[in-house]
Amino acid sequence: MEDMMRDPNGYSPSDIVNRLVNCISSGYEGIDYTVIPRDKNEKLFKDYVITSAKRREILKSLTINDYKRWEFSDNPDYDSLVYFFVKTVKLIPRYFEDASEKDVDLYIKVSWDENNNNLLFIISFHEKEY
User: Which pLDDT value is given to residue 39?
Assistant: First the structure.
């Protein structure tokens, strides 16, 4: 099945997951990867206690079971592919005294800027919409 999901560059889902985990593990936030400050992303960080360390932990925990698909970027400034993941994680809601962790389905989209030293962009990192 992995072979059927290869992207146009020949990368399988496990190749993509390994590349993502290596990128997150090898650098500092803002140097090797950056989270695009979109409204949905900011809402997640406002609604839940989620530090940059927790973000890195979640990204490093992604597996091929979380991988959903790839597609060509619709951003004309970037000639790259975008990879989609969905993962359920435990997060603590903000602003609720004595709140317990709850399962949150995250929708995560990542892309590498091949023209800019292979910088990893986390395009979307937010609650999955149903």
Answer: 92
Task: Give the mean model confidence (pLDDT) for residues 58-83.
Answer: 88
Sign of CA dihedral 16, 19, 22, 26: negative
- DSSP result, 72-86: E---TT---EEEEEE
The pLDDT mean for the chain works out to 85
**pLDDT tier for residue 88 given thresholds of 50, 70 and 90:** very high
- What CA–CA distance (Å, rounded) separates 89 from 22? 21
Residue 126, C-beta contacts closer than 8 angstroms, at least 6 positions apart: 38, 40, 41, 43, 44, 106, 107
Q: Which two tokens stand for residue 113?
A: 């800027």
pLDDT at 99: 86
Label the pairing between strands 33-35 and 81-93: unpaired
Which DSSP helix (H) or strand (E) runs through 119? strand 119-127
CA angle 35, 36, 41 (to 5 degrees): 85
- Helix spans in 1-130 (H): 13-26, 39-47, 52-60
